[in-house]
């Protein structure tokens, strides 16, 4: 455990490095503020003694002026410290947020399948917010508090050893207590963050599925789940909070005892004439002031517990590794790419094989149509081809090269995929077509959309390419969304394209537009089409029929069509499109 804690601290310091200049400035300002805090009670003590001895009014005015200047300066420094502290917190935690998001975007689909988007938001932002105050203030305030304590106690030892002894004992007890129980709330704070992430996950999931929720009268059920999730957050939150405030409450009790003891001693020394009234005030004031740094340390211990649970979760996330490891080969043959599956097997979970020993080859420039019943493994085949998952056995080659040996960017540059579930992003039509790539000009975009037959559609929009689209894609039909996605892929000029056709019924006009677009797109590349319509299969060179993850049939389309015993010929004869689904 000790080494783990050490590790999490070193990991944190890398984020503080870029702001170390500002941290140093913070520390200097805090030290000045500490000195000013120590000086002011001395001025007041001198003021009391001067007044008690019937001193000069001018001396009293001078002391009052000095007090005012010191107090105002201290306040100004406090404001500046808080400004710089916030700045440091944002700068360092934004870098961490960026690293977490980048890391998550590179994690494999097995990881993402287990996490809801709401949970990811909590992990990338919520956990980090918990760390931010720690980043900003922890180190400087802990150092500042210790300096203030040392200043007060050091001075008191010069004045009266017994009183200083009582104050030191109290201080050490309070600090010792906090050190001993500083980890008390860490696990419960971590649990609190987990339940909160689950709550956000639930809200996001249900809002994303609002159509289904409303259409199925699912609202009471959703509310029930929501209340249960909120109850968990409340219970874990209350427990975490209680465990965090115990150290603080304990020091309050200790402090009351210390003030009583010091005051009794001080009054005794004053009554026996050993100290002046001003000194009695100073002793009282310094004892009161001990509370501030100790309370500050207590607050920081609380913050530390909160931050530590966030740090543990963030570090856990950053140390999770993607199962998809990039290869180091970059070069693929020019032009269309051949595709080869050799004895490929794949499963999501060990107890359920999804693809079984698939072997087939598609030559460069050919088109392959994949058919099979629902759940036969068609989409899974396209996912392993794009390396969204690693296969469990066999080799997949593109252009003769094992895809695991290829650099991932090289693979994605040459291979495109259009899924049924097209994602729109909040932005203009242009942004959505180019995927925010500023290098693609409007001419390129319009030329491509023109070739795909989308010109009339774009011209009909009020602002053309500048039309704003909202995320989610509710404004597009399935066919339009596919045309859209085809444009995106087309703009990247891929050498191998995997296309999952929409299975929903398209109107005749959109269907022919889609067909034209596909033909146009596939002219210069190899195509793998998960076919949902017999019409599409007329355009392909080869057909692969999947059944329960096995190849039921693979061959040249024309040969299969002319063989009355083939599945494909039977499909053609009966025209049963549902077999393709
Ligand atoms: N992310 C996943 N995790 C676990 N199992 C999955 C996952 N995705 C699919 N499966 C399972 O793998 C099998 C093949 O699914 P796949 O989506 O590849 O079939 P499909 O032929 O594309 O079906 P459809 O035509 O309905 O899209 C199914 O039994 C499915 O339940």
TrEMBL record:
One of its GO terms (cellular component) is plasma membrane. SMART domains: AAA (SM00382). Residues 24-306 form the ABC transmembrane type-1 domain. Residues 339-573 form the ABC transporter domain. GO terms for molecular function: ABC-type oligopeptide transporter activity; ATP binding; ATP hydrolysis activity; cysteine-type peptidase activity. Pfam families: ABC_membrane, ABC_tran. It is found in: Cell membrane. Coiled coil: none annotated. The keyword Electron transport does not apply. The keyword Nucleotide-binding applies. SUPFAM superfamilies: ABC transporter transmembrane region, P-loop containing nucleoside triphosphate hydrolases. It is a multi-pass membrane protein. Keywords: ATP-binding, Cell membrane, Hydrolase, Membrane, Nucleotide-binding, Protease, Thiol protease, Transmembrane, Transmembrane helix, Transport. The chain crosses the membrane at residues 57-85, 134-155, 161-181, 248-271. PANTHER family: ATP-BINDING CASSETTE SUB-FAMILY B MEMBER 10, MITOCHONDRIAL, ATP-DEPENDENT PERMEASE MDL1, MITOCHONDRIAL. This is ABC transporter ATP-binding protein. It comes from Paenibacillus lutimineralis.
